[in-house]
Amino acid sequence: MSDTTHDGAVALSTSPSADDGLSPAELATKYGLTVSGARPGLFEYIRQLWGRRHFIMAFSRAKLTAQYSQAKLGQLWQVATPLLNALVYYLIFGLILGTRKGMSQEVFIPFLVTGVFVFTFTQSSVMAGVRAISGNLGLVRALHFPRASLPISFSLQQLQQLLFSMIVLAAVAIAFGSYPGLSWLLIIPALVMQFVFNTGLALIMARLGSKTPDLAQLMPFVMRTWMYASGVMFSIPVMLKDKPDWIANLLQYNPAAIYMDLVRFALIDGYGAGNLPAHVWIVALAWAVLMGLVGFVYFWKAEERYGRG
Amino acid sequence: MADDKTQGRVPTVIADDVHIVYRVNGAGGGKGSATAALSRILRRGKGEPRGVRKVHAVRGVSFTAYRGEAIGLIGTNGSGKSTLLRAIAGLLPTEHGKVYTDGQPSLLGVNAALMSDLTGERNVVLGGLAMGMSREEIRERYQGIVDFSGINEKGDFITLPMRTYSSGMAARLRFSIAAAKNHDVLMIDEALATGDRKFQIRSEKRIRELRKEAGTVFLVSHSNKSIRDTCDRVLWLEKGELLMDGPTDEVLKAYERETGK
């Protein structure tokens, strides 16, 4: 014990009792006290997180509705934003630059819109992840809950946002001659895997962003590079025909391209299995599991340090 | 203090020689400029980085708090009161020494904004869920929380976003949410200062209730009166050191003598 306390400082705590003579650590053990702010074990952490599942769901829904609460059109923007996005990309890449090489108009437009929506899902999860801790310090410092609730909740919010986009997407697909069929059901596993992948990535970004808020400035450029490299608005194998094989392979097996291709394959009649790289479902699953696990453990490792400074 | 009273005392918070050091980035001459930031990054990883200043905010504080106690923390601004509370809550790492607590202490501070873009209603529900209450518990206590905060006394404010609240209203709602749950250890950091007189009386009553429910309450305040009304023990911090620890009257008298000069 330190002796920096002055006379009388211990007037109250040194009343004669059975606990006298115990060191603080022994006293703590005797009464079952634990070190404050210590990180729980991984399984205990998962258990705590499960206990907060209602919070995670409620938080993501609240954030979703609050997003456009200041806009006059309100929730209409949930659908209008992705629609306008798709329109802009169609204008630039479909009409002006003409990147639809090797595809008919009926395939290219749903191809492009799918790409934009699916990539936006990952992109906004990453961006939300960066700010998940650093943008909610008030909440983190005020209340105790497993911090992973925040990035997971933000990824869920993006998933719900994506469901609105999917309404637009279905309309676009039907308008260009791809009608609902059994293959559309494949969208569900593809998006579930993408959601797990996104959450893992968001958890990693949340830890990095909590320490280096500058990432929020940097990430838009990284994400844009990733978007252009993933074939959102062009077919990778067609565009890179004359280049060495490994470049096309590298781009095609990157997770963003994989999930985009799966949704396109499920949705668009004219986009057959020939456009998919080999073992695509296994790769999609591997990315999801890998990123989900790595992200969760990486985030948990710094649990006791969030909200400081 | 009589022996029979001390026998059944159960410690809830033990601070064992706690030291807390803040590391502040970008303090010191010209560190805001781009070149300085660059050189800071380049030097990173080579020992103690330059341009990072250490602030030794709490120096070797030790005390034991018991169940049922309400402890006031006093001291001039910057004496380390809030820092110490944040360390007890497990939100700040200790440089040296340890804090042991019974369960998870909750810290209630003035700057602890909840979600300002959401309505008060949503904040009550989300705050409750985040504290680990179940949906049923929140439904049961919702009206109690709103009534206690007094937000709706002047009209239907609970359905407005929190950003439209005055600072006093927001602080009241935050306190009401946190006070709705029975905490093992509740720490209140000047949160009562912003409320009006009526609310202060209500919250002092609630603090007394919380104490009865076998919790420990810490209260940081610059109002000696509210310390006197709620606390039976006071810690006096100065420059990060524990200057005095004793019954409220004794410590407050010494504090008033010291600061009243």
Automatic annotation (TrEMBL), chain B:
Cited InterPro entries: AAA+_ATPase, ABC_transporter-like_ATP-bd, ABC_transporter-like_CS, ABC_transpr_TagH-like, Bact_Polysacc_Export_ATP-bd, P-loop_NTPase
Pfam families per record: ABC_tran
GO MF terms, alphabetically ordered: ATP binding
Transmembrane segments: none
Residue span(s) of domain ABC transporter: 36-261
Keywords for the protein's UniProt record, in alphabetical order: ATP-binding, Nucleotide-binding, Transport
Domain of life: Bacteria
Parts forming coiled coils: none
PANTHER family reported in the protein's UniProt record: TEICHOIC ACIDS EXPORT ATP-BINDING PROTEIN TAGH
Protein family according to the UniProt entry: Belongs to the ABC transporter superfamily.
Protein name as catalogued: ABC transporter ATP-binding protein
